[in-house]
Write a structure and sequence with these properties.
- Helix content is 79%, strand content 0%.
- With 228 residues, the protein is mainly alpha-helical.
- The protein folds into three domains: 96 residues, Serine Threonine Protein Phosphatase 5, Tetratricopeptide repeat, CATH 1.25.40; 57 residues, no CATH class; 50 residues, no CATH class.
- The longest helix has 40 residues.
- GO terms for molecular function: microtubule binding.
């Protein structure tokens, strides 16, 4: 298991998504939480590739959730298992409609919070908690209406709460992720603080693009900067 994990982490660091998935999927019955959450992540990364067909993407998204769930069953105190379980539930929501997405929101929040409790230094979990807050602060009225029908107390948040998490993530690991910089800028825009928005959006725009996502972030940051 140690060897496989070492190999997997090397492939992950090198951006070898397909090779990584092929390596880990051979060990899907291993029952090791460390392997299983990595397999969930690899399945999800493969689903995100632009070369993956819509049909394969859907299958991989559900597969990823299954592996994350198994990782959690094997080890309740593994922070990464909680984090990837929450991420995968959120992905599956894209296929199950707005009601399921809102209904899953509480579960997602709970697992992100548990991941942060178990590892307060993991900037990604903190960032994702910020994204959760941002999306509920930014929720369109018709979704709020559905949420109010589904729950006595529907999930809510504020831009200020989102901002707090994005800053906490930055403190835990400065400059770790282009999207965190982008969301700091976007949140400051929502709070009408143009000076701070300009600062963070400029950082996002100048972030070196290593992945497809980084390129998207640069593009969005540039568009927002031009609109200010």
């Amino acid at each position: 298991v140690e060897e496989v994990i070492e190999q997997a982490d090397y492939l992950y660091g090198s951006g070898e998504t397909e090779k990584l998935y092929r390596l880990l999927v051979q060990h899907k019955t291993s029952g090791d939480a460390e392997l299983l959450w990595r397999l969930a992540r690899a399945s999800r990364d493969l689903a995100q590739l632009s070369s993956t067909s819509a049909e394969a993407k859907k299958q991989l998204v559900y597969e990823a959730l299954e592996y994350a769930k198994q990782a959690l069953e094997k080890n309740e105190s593994n922070f990464a298992a909680h984090k990837w379980y929450a991420i995968c539930i959120s992905d599956v929501g894209d296929y199950e409609g707005i009601k399921a997405k809102i209904a899953n929101a509480f579960v997602i929040k709970e697992h992100f919070q548990r991941a942060i409790e178990l590892n307060p230094k993991d900037a990604t979990s903190i960032h994702l908690m910020g994204i959760w807050c941002y999306s509920f602060a930014d929720m369109p009225w018709y979704q709020r209406k559905i949420a109010a029908m589904l729950f006595a107390t529907p999930p809510t948040s504020t831009y200020k709460e989102a901002l707090r998490y994005f800053h906490m993530a930055e403190e835990a690991d400065p400059n770790f992720y282009s999207k965190n910089l982008l969301y700091l800028g976007k949140t400051y825009l929502k709070l009408n603080n143009k000076k701070m928005a300009l600062l963070w959006l400029s950082k996002a725009k100048e972030y070196p693009a290593h992945t497809e996502e980084d390129k998207q972030v640069q593009k969005e940051a540039l568009e927002l900067l031009n609109s200010i």
